[in-house]
Amino acid sequence: MRNFLLGVLLMALLALGVKYIIDLSDNEKTEIESSGLILNQIKNVGKLIVTEGHFSDIITYKNDKTYFKLLSSKKKIIVMVNANIQVSYDLKKIEHTIDEETKTLTITQIPEAEITINPEIKYHDIEEGIMNKFNAKDHNSIRKIAIQKLDKKIQESTLIKNSQNRLISELQKLYILTNSLGWSLKYQDTAIDSQVSIEKLITP
Length: 204
Prior knowledge:
Elements: H1 2-45, E1 48-67, E2 71-90, E3 95-99, E4 104-109, E5 114-127, H2 136-156, H3 159-180, E6 184-187, E7 190-192, H4 195-202
Parallel strand pairs: 4-6
Antiparallel strand pairs: 1-2, 2-5, 3-4, 6-7
Helix pairs in contact: 1-3, 3-4
């Protein structure tokens, strides 16, 4: 009887040991699957977000030159500028770290918005002086002025905000996934505890 009870006890201990090993293995497998899902989501998020817009402007460009403090020569031109604008985020440039021990995904760097301006410049009502003709330097100056004015319009428009909203939407997917797996999401040293906190980080 004693030997029987001892045998039962040994079998029970063996069963508990096997169960512990299986549970440990399943837990490790779950952690590997969780980190794999997160890496896959980062890969899916890592795409190029492009928001497009169109802007127009009219510029009056003037240049006066005086020779020997006596002779003055003026030139003026009306410039029509039409431009296609792209605001893009290359999310392949997102930098991150994964800590499986603490179940934490940390985004260390989010790429800055890249603004591409492709202006089409047309000239109207050209007035030139005899000694003050339009040249390549003037065209470069006009283009520079046009891009500066367009950039100001872009910053004041909804184009930047719309592109930020698309960026936030992609980052929120990471929060939803990490939260559903019981992981934590951080941006640098700041813990992300809601989808709203992502928006605050992107648009302070």
